Amino acid sequence: MNLAALDMNLLVVFDALMEERNVTRAGRRVGLTQPAVSNALSRLRLLLKDQLFIRTPAGMQPTARALEIAGPVQQALAQIKDALEPSWFDPATAELSFALAAGDYIGSTLLPPLTELLRDRAPGVRLRVLPANTLDLMHFLDNGECDMAIGFFDTIPERLDAMPLWAESVSLVARWDHPLASGPMSLERLAEAPHILISQTGQEDDGSSDGYLLSHGLRRQVMTRSHLALRRSLEERGLRLRVALTVPYYSAVLPIVMQSDLVTLLPHRVALSLHRLAGVAVRDLPCPLEAVQIQGLWHRQVTARASHTWLRRLVAEAAQRMTGQTLSPGRLAS
């Protein structure tokens, strides 16, 4: 093929159509009208001598040829973008947007110091937080719609890079005058209390899961592993964990705990925040549970990008600030 006859914008349209499978949405993504996208597709069909996309009730379905070239086209566009990216980055004058995928736990702990650092050092840089619990993270990282995902991860595909940010322990949270707010803590007492389980999928575990969801090679935590570990500790004693309520968000827990006899296990930093905010009781557990490592993930194709290198350093600094301000675990009551 004569590359001089190839309009690179046609490949940009092709990549957008592969992601969106819809002409209107693809046009919105690349800043073109629907007729302009259709015209670009017609030109690309003539050039490659293939239909590429077939209109169906379910959207624009790619042909075998389109699926064959989709990966190389996406990689080529990413390499061109990196080649044209400045080798330096000045946060004080930069005007761009970063997208982070994070759940509400990360939002309540890391975002405050990260936002403060951004305001002080990069006033023109905007930050968008994508809901990690509802996204196909690998899809968003692969196509560049997400610059970094932050959370609890296990198996990580080779095409991603990762950095550890901090380790998080767990604590029991209960109403300030709950029976478990005082007195000796034991597994027997924990088994008597009804629990709130936090699961991003909204599903209660049946004991066969390890609390992770595998998607496109990436295993991420979708259920509070501490509850699963507590369940096993109780079963070893012939006891049972009483799950009375399952919710998908940490933010849903506080009003329920404050107005009921339900208790829950929360990341220690979240538990401390709720104690300061509402005076809930925070207790250490009678059985040791392994701390969970929070990590930042990003696609290797952006590792060398100057702006992304700056973003990673800023996230790491925000994590350091946040952990340095955290109190030691222990029993806190109002």
TrEMBL record:
Pfam families: HTH_1, LysR_substrate. The keyword Protease does not apply. This is Transcriptional regulator, LysR family. It comes from Azospirillum oryzae. GO terms for molecular function: DNA binding; DNA-binding transcription factor activity. Residues 6-63 form the HTH lysR-type domain. It comes from the Bacteria. Keywords: DNA-binding, Transcription, Transcription regulation. Transmembrane segments: none annotated. Belongs to the LysR transcriptional regulatory family. SUPFAM superfamilies: Periplasmic binding protein-like II, Winged helix' DNA-binding domain.
